[in-house]
Amino acid sequence: MLNQLSGEQHRAVSRLMIPALRGDHLSAHRAATAAAAQRMAHACPVGNPFRLLPLLDTAAPEANVSACLSVDDPRVMHTWTKAIARLRQSTMRPAVMACALGMLPWWPTGHRAWRACLHLVHEEVARRRRTGATHDDVLGLLLASDSEELTNEVLCDQIVFYLLAAKAPALTAAWVVERGARTLGRLATAGR
Fold first, then answer.
1. CA 95 to CA 190: how far, in whole Å?
2. What distances in angstroms separate CA 168 from CA 70, 88, 172, 187, 190, one per listed residue?
3. Taking the CA atoms of the chain, what radius of gyration do you get in angstroms?
4. Left, alpha or beta for 102 (phi > 0: left; psi -120 to 50: alpha)?
5. What CA–CA distance (Å, rounded) separates 186 from 183?
6. Distance of alpha carbon 182 from alpha carbon 192, whole angstroms
7. Which of 71, 76, 98, 136 is at 20 to 30 A from 121, Cα to Cα?
8. In the chain, count of helices (H) and strands (E)?
């Protein structure tokens, strides 16, 4: 599934990706991130309890796809976020660990989801190479590299892994909002 990079190869690919993940580079995608947050905020019901994490699980991948691939077409965004959601859902199963440890050589659901995401990335890489399109995003930075370690297979795996990582910020944001709401609730109750 995921190319297992180690040693110098891992460090070389990390050195390529780190500039794309820094705040100054990501700030160029602030408007797309704000738009995803705005859509999430409008989906919150007013005056009724609701589950925040599912909303964040939609907004975080949208922000990641925008920063990574400069996607602004809603239909294309839907295709990407749907594929990522399927992959994330399939990675939450115990079979993932068994597959990663080599105990389960074939895991149909996970392999299909991974291949679907890889297919989307391969198509985008091919489109950019064919048209010469350059973008100020994570994929654009990696495509501009002439690193020998960054084969097409490694490049595509890294992009899928980056897109899959949106779950961590969503969980962190949900925790921050929950803690904030709890604290505000206590302050409001104490002030009465």
1. 48
2. 21, 11, 6, 29, 33
3. 19
4. left
5. 5
6. 16
7. 98
8. 10, 0
DSSP state of 45: P
Q: What kind and span of H or E run contains 166?
A: none
Query: Residue 135 has which token pair?
Result: 């973008």
28 φ, ψ (degrees, to nearest 5): -65, -20
pLDDT tens digit sequence for 123-170: 999 999 999 888 888 888 888 888 777 888 888 888 888 888 766 666
> Vertex 171, ends 109 and 7: CA angle to 5°?
65
Please tell me the distance from the alpha carbon of residue 13 to that of residue 18, in angstroms, as a whole number: 9
Cα–Cα dist 22/84, whole Å: 22
Mean pLDDT (the chain, rounded)? 77
Residue of 173, 178, 3, 167 lying closest to 92 (CA atoms):
167
d(CA 79, CA 67): 16
Quick one: DSSP state of residue 28?
G
